[in-house]
């Protein structure tokens, strides 16, 4: 069949909800997407200029479009999810943790066994989970074993075989871990009652088990059977101790799923909290690799569907940070205050911790990727035209106008490049004039780089507010560099970031990595400048002490310091030692001055 031109394919698309698929010239699937209106959504790919290069490349590769019409948007979401899993198109988001998780199984059989498995078999058995940690499963199974005598053998305990005496009790029976259903010592009704209580615990409901144990403990105590009552008391303590380890929220919040999302340029992190009977029974964070210009709403929608499906959630209500389209039967709450808002904030905090954990791992395992991400974030936060791989920061140091100096520190790929640090003695400014000093040092720095044909930075950071920034701009104007190098000022008081020609400062989030790098630059420039300034003042003080002595000049001072290293040692030196360096006449004058 002859392939129709794209404009004809687009013009004949329906205005209905559905799923669209993009194919290349070799009929390989490139992308799967959903839409409320297929014609409008697909047309948007070809009718606008895309900011991201990946989207532009995708559009160039599209040679064929296919679509499937469905009844509702939620049906489109389901179909999109299934097609992405099946075909894994190159330009669709990648769910980074799409792997097999363990479950707890209550086997469909007479006297059901309870065990962990990674395979779900459709034989009528019940599966709880999946769990993201084997430690959680082990803790739960140990808890169940300590409270309920559940069998561990895999015998077929049919009524006929038990009546025929086919089995004998094992060591577990003698240890008290099993009540011997294999020999008919425990009825199926009594055993099933235990399994029902285990089922409640796995759902996060400890109430019925605790109530049952407390009633039995009281009855046994009333009958003076204190040893048996103590056994139930021990079980109550085990159950209450486990329950106290789960995060307790408002008990009225029951059977709710909570979702939050944190994103950057390359990845999204979606946290899922599952609440049951006032406790958090599950927390899981999913990492999603972005491929195109996906919005937070679309990524969160995809994650909600995927995580609820994966973890078999039956909750009828979800708490979300903002409105997204979900399954029709779900109630959506966007909390603003109170306990509901606190639990949403907890979910956001979990997503942030997971993101930071991943950053720390990448920093160790893949430093180049870490650097690329930081640079991309700085470019976005500071509204730059290119990534600031080379940054230079300036700071002035003087005390009441004495010994004015300036420092320039250099960062390459977000890290200090100390061999390129430079310090400057201020030559043309008299008195404490920060603005004029900044103007001089910026001019000298970039005039030299231009003369020597050295690479210029992508970003200049000035330690100071609007005044220092304006002075620096004068120097860039004189050199013809204005607009060729991005420049910002950072003021200490509230960490305001000033841009040329903009009187309103930018305030970055206090935990922002871009702000942390700017602060590190500023602090490093301050440290480097202060150290140089102190050394200069110290040297000036030494020279003034020695050169104040009649007959002692710059050469004599240099010879003395070369030999004795400090003024203190010169003071403590004997007349003979001083004579050996500067001769008898000068030695006598120096010795008399200090003694």
From TrEMBL:
Subcellular locations according to the entry: Cytoplasm
Q: Where is the GIY-YIG domain?
A: 15-93
Q: Which InterPro entries match?
A: DisA/LigA_HHH, GIY-YIG_endonuc, GIY-YIG_endonuc_sf, GIY-YIG_UvrC_Cho, RuvA_2-like, UVR_dom, UVR_dom_sf, UvrABC_protein_C
- What keywords sit in the KW lines? Cytoplasm, DNA damage, DNA excision, DNA repair, Excision nuclease, SOS response
Pfam families from the UniProt entry: GIY-YIG, HHH_2, UVR, UvrC_RNaseH, UvrC_RNaseH_dom
Q: Boundaries of each UVR domain copy?
A: 207-242
Look up the domain of life of the source: Bacteria
The keyword Nucleus is assigned to this record: no
**Ranges for domain UvrC family homology region profile:** 262-476
SUPFAM superfamilies assigned to the protein according to its UniProt record, in alphabetical order: C-terminal UvrC-binding domain of UvrB (SSF46600), GIY-YIG endonuclease (SSF82771), RuvA domain 2-like (SSF47781)
Where, if anywhere, are coiled coils annotated? none
Q: Does the keyword Aminoacyl-tRNA synthetase apply?
A: no
Q: What is its main location?
A: cytoplasm
HAMAP family reported in the protein's UniProt record: UvrC
Its biological function?
The UvrABC repair system catalyzes the recognition and processing of DNA lesions. UvrC both incises the 5' and 3' sides of the lesion. The N-terminal half is responsible for the 3' incision and the C-terminal half is responsible for the 5' incision.
Q: Which family does it belong to?
A: Belongs to the UvrC family.
Query: How does this polypeptide assemble, per the annotation?
Result: Interacts with UvrB in an incision complex.
Identification of the protein by name: UvrABC system protein C
The scientific name of the source species is Maribacter aquimaris
Gene encoding the protein: uvrC
């Amino acid at each position: 069949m002859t392939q129709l031109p794209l404009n004809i394919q687009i013009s004949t698309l329906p205005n209905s909800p559905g799923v669209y698929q993009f194919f290349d010239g070799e009929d390989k699937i490139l992308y799967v997407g959903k839409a409320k209106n297929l014609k409008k959504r697909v047309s948007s790919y070809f009718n606008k200029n895309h900011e991201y290069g990946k989207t532009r490349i995708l559009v160039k590769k599209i040679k064929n479009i296919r679509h499937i019409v469905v009844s509702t948007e939620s049906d489109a979401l389901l179909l999109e999810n299934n097609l992405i899993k099946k075909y894994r198109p190159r330009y669709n988001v990648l769910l980074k943790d799409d792997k097999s998780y363990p479950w707890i199984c209550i086997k469909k059989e007479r006297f059901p066994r309870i065990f962990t498995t990674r395979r779900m078999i459709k034989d009528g058995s019940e599966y709880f989970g999946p769990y993201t940690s084997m430690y959680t499963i082990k803790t739960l199974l140990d808890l169940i074993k300590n409270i309920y005598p559940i069998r561990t053998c895999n015998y077929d305990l049919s009524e006929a075989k038990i009546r025929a005496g086919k089995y004998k009790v094992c060591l577990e029976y003698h240890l008290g871990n099993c009540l011997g259903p294999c020999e008919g010592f425990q009825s199926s009704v009594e055993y099933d009652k235990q399994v029902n209580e285990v089922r409640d615990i796995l759902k996060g409901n400890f109430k019925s088990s605790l109530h049952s144990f407390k009633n039995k403990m009281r009855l046994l105590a009333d009958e003076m059977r204190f040893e048996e009552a103590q056994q139930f008391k021990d079980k109550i303590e085990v159950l209450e101790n486990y329950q106290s380890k789960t995060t307790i929220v408002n008990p009225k919040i029951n059977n709710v799923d909570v979702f939050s999302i944190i994103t950057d340029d390359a990845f999204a992190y979606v946290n899922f909290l599952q609440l049951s009977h006032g406790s958090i029974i599950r927390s899981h964070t999913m990492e999603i690799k972005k491929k195109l210009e996906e919005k937070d709403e679309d990524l969160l929608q995809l994650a909600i569907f995927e995580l609820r499906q994966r973890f078999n959630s039956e909750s009828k209500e979800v708490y979300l940070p903002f409105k997204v389209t979900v399954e029709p039967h779900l109630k959506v709450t966007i909390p603003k205050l109170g306990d509901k808002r606190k639990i949403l904030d907890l979910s956001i905090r979990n997503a942030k911790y997971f993101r930071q954990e991943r950053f720390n791992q990448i920093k160790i395992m893949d430093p180049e990727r870490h650097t690329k991400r930081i640079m991309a974030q700085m470019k976005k936060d500071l509204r730059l035209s290119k990534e600031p791989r080379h940054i230079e920061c300036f700071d002035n140091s003087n005390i009441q106008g004495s010994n004015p100096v300036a420092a320039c520190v250099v960062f390459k790929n977000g890290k200090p490049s100390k061999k390129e640090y430079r310090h400057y003695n201020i030559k043309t400014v008299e008195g404490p004039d920060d603005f004029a000093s900044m103007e001089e040092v910026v001019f000298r720095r970039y005039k030299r780089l231009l003369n020597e044909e050295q690479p210029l930075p992508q970003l200049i950071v000035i330690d100071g507010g609007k005044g220092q920034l304006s002075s620096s701009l004068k120097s860039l104007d004189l050199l013809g560099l204005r607009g060729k190098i991005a420049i910002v000022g950072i003021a200490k008081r509230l960490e305001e970031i000033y841009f040329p020609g903009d009187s309103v400062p930018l305030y970055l989030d206090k935990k922002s990595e871009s702000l942390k790098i700017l602060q590190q630059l500023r602090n490093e420039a301050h440290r480097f400048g202060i150290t140089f300034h102190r050394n200069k003042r110290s040297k000036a003080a030494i020279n003034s002490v020695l050169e104040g002595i009649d007959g002692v000049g710059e050469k004599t001072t240099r010879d003395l310091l070369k030999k004795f290293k400090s003024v203190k040692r010169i003071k403590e030196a004997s007349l003979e030692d001083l004579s050996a360096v500067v001769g008898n006449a000068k030695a006598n004058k120096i010795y008399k001055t200090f003694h």
